[in-house]
Specification:
The protein is an alpha+beta fold and 584 residues long. Helix 8 packs across helix 17 and helix 8 crosses helix 20. Helix content is 37%, strand content 15%. The strands form three sheets. The chain has a six-stranded antiparallel β-sheet. It has 23 helices and 17 strands. The chain is globular and about 65 Å long.
């Protein structure tokens, strides 16, 4: 990840203004500690803080076309840059950077090239010939980008809002899959897949097609010139990423530089579910595994810094970001600059435990569509900013454009959780990688119950956060919360505590308006809370709030009932698996 800052139409283009842009850009240096760049053209400024992943020697930014009339600053990776370069044979490239292709595509195609990019990206481009500019963000919002407006009529863009909050009168996030054009005077959506309309698809499920698409997505993300690894929690998604990466690493160019043994990383409280499962997966795959531990107090001590970096007061995001933030620091200390992670699978396949209560395939599919569209506010924000805080880049193969198109075209009846058929959450993904002849993972890992990251690092982590917040926030403070915070009012002491920290760093209305709100259970949308009447009395983003579904729910009604819902012993789940195989 890198940090970008761009300003257009400043009323002041003095040396003092340039110094101010440099100062604001430094607020993003954690994202790109390897080099700083700045291009000035009259009243336009493009600044860049670089994290060098591809072509570390010559790929410093901003980047240019051949005659330097087009300038671009980019945060992200373009996985198909070699194929795109091959289509631009008449163009002369200055560097080996994957991002340089953006300047040349603009020169060749104008503003209508963004859909040609396969990758994760946010970029701002200036055409000095007419002082027009564009800014665009990747399809799902894997990389962050904010837009702001100054009182002098200036337009600003930045990777994080901390670079805009002092100098812009108003700012907000640039929507994923959109492009801003100064020529056309606003935003338009460049990403228009079939699933976006939320119409119910009907393509039959083909496990080999799904498996092949995911393997291709992982292989793309092995493109690197620096040391890398996989974040391995021991859950299904991260374990599949590790299994596929480990299987194909030897054939990747990266293996020539960094060897063919994959490095994996995990964090948790001592004795947590994740660390135990991750260790088992790592042993099975033969990876070089790094296991980190943290204490509840260490996590609490980091909260202010975490909230400053991730720029949200959303409860579940903070719970999960804190261990990821701590782990990223450890990873960077080992000299690793890029990791591959498993975000996005639960949104695509309905993996959160509340999906057990989806009443029909239509509502199931619409909920997955809504969850994918909102990823940029939750898991993408967490994965990007928690790692970028320490100059580490996170790549997410489940959010590959082609893979999403294939997965979201499948008839959602196949994604529905059907105990009568032995189908647990994300059954179609598990089944696609259930290869008897050449197993990707041990069966009990392949069919492990969903654990949200904030739960899997250790159940006492969330309990510890709640206890700490209860000591910081009085009953009177919470009772008067609607007067202190009339917008997106916190309803728990934990949420109130996080809000006070956020407001200290980001006091403007514009900042708080970037944070989502509304009732949620186990990470559901507000609409899905209606699926079970009991959930409205137990609104908490933890997976354990899915009463009657999670094996370690906050209020269990007995182990037998949990087992009957397929969330009991591994043996019980394997019996369900065998039943599913027979049906299939």
């Amino acid at each position: 990840m890198c940090g970008i800052l761009a300003v257009f139409g400043c009323s002041d283009n003095s040396q003092a203004k340039r110094a101010r842009i440099v100062e604001l850009s430094r607020r993003l240096r954690h994202r790109g500690p390897d080099w700083s760049g700045l291009h000035c053209h009259e009243d336009c400024y493009l600044a860049h803080q670089r994290l060098a992943i591809v072509d570390p020697a010559s790929g410093d930014q901003p980047l240019y076309n051949q005659d330097k009339t087009v300038v671009v600053t980019v945060n992200g990776e373009i996985y198909n840059h070699k194929e795109l370069r091959a289509q631009l044979k008449s163009h002369t490239f200055r560097t080996g950077s994957d991002c340089e292709v953006i300047a040349h595509l603009y020169e060749e195609h104008g503003e209508n090239f963004v859909g040609m990019l396969d990758g994760m990206f946010s970029f701002v481009l200036l055409d000095t010939r007419d002082k027009s500019f564009i800014a665009a963000r990747d399809a799902i919002g894997i990389t962050p980008l904010y837009i702001g407006w100054g009182l002098d009529g200036s337009v600003w863009f930045a990777s994080e809002m901390k670079a805009l909050s002092d100098d812009c009168e108003r700012f907000t996030y640039l929507l994923p899959g959109h492009i801003y054009s100064s020529k056309q005077g606003g935003l338009r959506r460049w990403y228009n897949p079939t699933w976006y309309s939320e119409q119910i698809p009907s393509t039959p499920y083909d496990p080999l097609v799904l498996r092949g698409a995911f393997e291709k997505a992982v292989i793309k993300r092995l493109m690197t010139d620096v040391p890398f690894g996989v974040l391995l929690s021991g859950g299904l998604d991260s374990s599949l990423v590790a299994a596929v990466a480990s299987r194909h690493l030897a054939d990747a160019e990266a293996a020539c530089q960094w060897g063919s043994q994959l490095h994996t990383f995990c964090i948790g409280l001592k004795g947590s579910p994740d660390t135990k499962a991750a260790r088992e997966v790592a042993d099975y795959l033969g990876t070089h595994h790094h296991e980190f531990h943290f204490t509840i107090q260490e996590g609490i001590d980091a909260l202010e810094e975490v909230i400053y970096h991730i720029e949200t007061f959303d409860v579940t995001t903070i719970r999960a970001s804190t261990p990821m933030f701590l782990m990223s620091r450890k990873i960077k200390s080992l000299g690793v600059k890029m990791v591959i992670s498993g975000e996005g699978s639960d949104e695509i396949f309905g993996g959160y435990l509340y999906f057990h209560k989806a009443p029909n395939k239509e509502e199931f599919h619409q909920e997955t569509c809504q969850k994918i569209k909102a990823l940029h506010l939750y898991d993408c924000l967490r994965a990007n900013k928690s790692t970028s805080a320490w100059g580490v880049e996170a790549r997410v193969p489940f959010l590959d454009k082609e893979f999403i198109n294939i997965a979201m075209s499948i008839d959602p009846e196949w994604k529905m959780i059907r105990p009568d058929l032995g189908r647990i959450e994300k059954w179609i993904l598990r089944n696609a990688f259930d290869d008897e002849k050449n197993p990707y993972l041990p069966k009990h890992i392949l069919y492990r119950q969903k654990e949200q990251f904030s739960d899997g690092v250790g159940y006492s982590w969330i309990d510890g956060l709640k206890d700490h917040a209860n000591k910081q926030v009085t009953d009177s403070m919470l009772m008067n919360a609607s007067f202190v915070y009339p917008e997106n009012t916190p309803t728990t002491k934990e949420a109130y505590y996080y809000r006070t920290i956020f407001e200290k760093f980001f006091p403007k209305n514009a900042a708080r308006s970037t944070v989502p709100g509304g009732p949620s259970v186990a990470c559901s949308t507000a609409k899905a809370v209606e699926w079970d009447a009991s959930w409205s009395k137990n609104l908490d983003p933890s997976g354990r709030a899915a009463l009657g579904v999670h094996a370690a729910a906050y209020e269990e009604t007995g182990d037998t009932k949990a087992a009957n819902l397929m969330n009991g012993s591994p043996q019980k789940r394997l019996e369900m698996l065998e039943k599913a195989a027979a049906v299939a």
